[in-house]
Amino acid sequence: MSVYSETFAKRMAMAGLKPHHRIVLGVSGGPDSMALCVLTATWKTNSLGIASQKNEFVDGLLAVVVDHGLRAESKDEANLVHRRVTSMGIKCEISCCEWSESKPKQGHLQEAARQKRYEILQSACIRHQIGVLMTAHHADDQAELFILRLSRNSGVLGLSGMAFVSQLFSTRPDLSAEATGKGLLLVRPLLEFSKEDMYKICDGANQEWVEDPTNRSTLFARNRIRMILTDLASPIFRSELQALIAACRRTRLDVDKICSNLMHQTVTIMPEGYAAIDLGILSPPELKDIVLSKFIALLLQFVSQRQRPVRGSASKLLLDYIRTSPCKTAVTASGCYLCPAPGSKGTKVLVCCSTGADLPLEMLNPSLTEGENCSISNEVEQIVANGRSYSDQFPQSTLGMQFLDLTSSDSVLTEAKREGILGESTYKSIISLQREESDNFKSKTNIVLEKKVEHKVEYTASAPSEVLHPEKVGYFMNRFIVKWNLSKQNAYTSFSMNNSNQLQEFGEERWNFCNSCVLGHDQVSRVRYMVDADWLYLATLSKREDRSSVHEELPLSAESRVMSNVNLCSACIKKSAERALLLLKSIPVAARRALPVLVNVEGLLLSIPSVGFQHCPCLVASAIFKPKVPLGGGYNSFL
Fold it and tell me: Which residue spans traverse the membrane (predicted)?
């Protein structure tokens, strides 16, 4: 137990964690999570010099048991685990899954349960203002994931497995001005421990555990792989497989560092939500495919805010595009539109969010999101700094560098054998495992495809905009915080600047008309992306000498009906359109198309908040670019 405790303490230091840091533990009640409870409680109490006493909880430690509700006995099991964890001196709470729709089907059960579990654990961290979440993944879990990804032909970065430390970001952005977007830290301190170690730790601490029967079901790929790996569990096989995983992780560590440096040196993020890459500084021809592919993927994931991997033909298309210098064409891939930056002669590339996808608008509650993460951001920032400082103490290893030129899972195995990382016996066993699970995966995929062919679904076009009420806050495409309201003071100020001779006319009657002239009496707006017609409409407004000109040009449109009723607003609208056009000229066309705009129920343009256009002086709207996940995807450590 002393050796286990010493190793655990070292891993915690590598993560940047110290005993005074507050931690949430994800606990299932199995041997892995119970071992994590034992080691974490011991680390905290020993380091802080606090005597373990009955009826007292370890300071700064909270265990969360998630009851998925997928088995009849899950509630009783959760209560049993709660009692066991509490008896260890660890404060514990049970959280139950609420399935908004039906419970997940058998084929997707583990994936759906995992997603729900992490949502609950993140929520617990935020609710208790704790910045660190720890889970009990260990070396055997890494081995299972390695074989699983190998069977899906993952490259060396995918084969590096789970990160030792990574950042999790809330599904809701923090609306406070002080928010730094540090998110939470997910730490896996047991990745150097084996499954056998988990049992020994529990036995050494006289701790009982529960066994989940679903872990024995061969319906799930991980379970099948686990059973086969158990049969192959010779010391040599385990050692060589872990050595190969370690080499992949060192490669991942190096690639991540290179990409992080390149992001800071070559990428400029604009407040309108697009990015510019300086190809001269990036020098794509000098970068290895693995580095450039990762760099592009990280940038596209940031701009689109879709955390999906960029693989296969899309990755190759983007590599060829970035390496073509000077850049003269445009390309759409992975939710983004890439094109040469105007005036750069192809030496810079713009990355803009593509508008061909759905337009989700999530409603936010300021009372729940404002400042919810501020109190933990500083602590997370300090832990990350500690972790970076620890990793910087070690010189860059040449081990794993030989994998930088490899493009497939087969080439990784071949190189590992050539370098002596894998012996002949281990190599053949891994190849056999890979083929078997790959066949299972292909068979399952074919069945799914056949079902899709048999049951075609007719899709109808979705609405081009989403409703947003006044004083409410919307989160548009995980990118922009959008809100609007009506302000009598704002209208008064606008009229005083543009219509001083008519200011006396601004009375209560005028206010009542003005605040409904474009919104209608329902006072509802909708949010969508900017389209080319919006630019043309602004040009029409800016050129108008009097309200009749627009009336003549658009006799049957919604615009003409509104304009005929507007008197005092005319000068304000004209000035607003002129200013907006001037600002829009400085924004590339591709980037304009991803800007959020407000329209009324008839589709009339109300506001382009990013350039300050308001169709009515009473209207006050804003759109702030605040992506959920930061550039680079946040902090990751593969130590």
Answer: none
- Distance of alpha carbon 83 from alpha carbon 609, whole angstroms: 54
CA 106 to chain centre: 26
For residue 542, give every residue at least 6 positions away whose Cβ sits within 8 Å of its Cβ, in sequence order, or none.
574, 577, 578, 581
CA 459 to chain centre: 27
Query: Per DSSP, which regions of 260-347 are E strands?
Result: 267-269, 275-278, 331-333, 336-340
Q: Residue 371 pLDDT more than 90? A: no
Rounded to whole angstroms, the Cα distance separating 75 from 66 reads 10
Contacts of 456 (CB under 8 A, 6+ apart): none
**Helix (H), strand (E) at residue 239:** helix 235-266
CA-derived radius of gyration, the chain: 29
Q: What are 419-428's pLDDT values in tens digits?
A: 999 999 999 9
What distance in Å separates the CA atoms of residue 189 and residue 54, rounded to the nearest whole number? 27
> Is residue 435 scored above 70 in pLDDT?
yes
Tens of pLDDT, residue by residue over 301-331, are 999 998 888 988 999 999 999 999 899 999 9
Pairing of strands 132-134, 184-187: parallel
